Amino acid sequence: MKLEEKVKKSIEKYKMLNKDEKILVSVSGGKDSHTAAWILKKLDYNIELFHINLGISKFSEISLKKVKELAEILNVPLNIVNLKDITGKTIEDLRKKHCSICGITKRYLMNRFGYENGFDVIVTGHNLDDEVSFLLNNLLNWSIRYLPKHLPVLPSHDKFLKKVKIFYEIEEEEILEYAEKEGIPFTTAKCKFQKDAITVEHRKYLNKLKEYNKNIKKQFLYGYLKYRHIFELEEDFQFKECKICGMTSAGNICSFCRVWKIKEFKW
Ligand code: SF4
Ligand code: ZN
């Protein structure tokens, strides 16, 4: 089955998207998010692109170039934000925890941008390999709060928009093959902080296991979907509004304002 058909099937199966929704596709410059935008445009969804310039030398420049190329070919609006304009700093200026702060930053900015600009849903390029490596990481750390959340669709609540992973069931190699065949512009440049991310090791391990059982990743994911209810916590949790930026937060100050020491939020 062609990749587009598989994506169409996932969209129907998990009720991911509607044709009347305004969709913000978060694009990084890499093959997965670019292919997500490409396929959604082909399937006639109403999309705009969103890109964050993280200020990582060489990597961010080449990523931005590829994102611009993609927007031009697809003829869709491209929204770019510069991390430095908002926080006064770049990911490179951090002394530690680059990837975890980068993750918090990307999730916050794409949600905030989508929320303030009337989007209904955010689509990311996360694929099956991403999902199972994050799931394994959260299991190894017993991050109980995150364990129920490895879903293809996270519904909206408070000021959080709906989040959708259209490649939830698709392996990375299939996306790469499609992207090359279609001539989608993307970069294979690697961020210099990637070597510090333990999930890269989990991916290697899962690929090794695939030599013994080619369905191991899907088996892990579908088993999780069957049994994930055991991780659901019965708690009466109330979200708040961040005292600085006003976005939905678990505590009085959201993690974005906390890690970047924000005093007042301005785009
Ligand atoms: Fe951000 Fe880490 Fe990815 Fe680099 S490797 S873009 S720091 S999450
Ligand atoms: Zn905040």
Helix- and strand-based class?
A: alpha/beta
Helix content: 40-55%
What's the story with the biggest beta sheet? 6 strands, mixed
Radius of gyration, CA atoms, in whole angstroms: 18 Å
Q: Mind telling me the CATH class?
A: Alpha Beta
Q: Order of strands side by side in the largest beta sheet? A: 3-2-1-4-6-5
Stretches where pLDDT is under 50 for at least 5 consecutive residues are none
Q: Which fold does the CATH topology refer to?
A: Rossmann fold
CATH superfamily: HUPs
CATH structural architecture: 3-Layer(aba) Sandwich
Tally of extended strands?
8
User: What is the chain-wise order of helices and strands?
Assistant: HEHEHEHHEHEEHHHEEH
Distance between the ends: 43 Å
Mean pLDDT: 96
Shape: globular
Percent of sequence in beta strands: 5-15%
**Count of helices?**
10
Domain tally: 1
- Which small-molecule species are bound to the chains here? iron/sulfur cluster, zinc ion
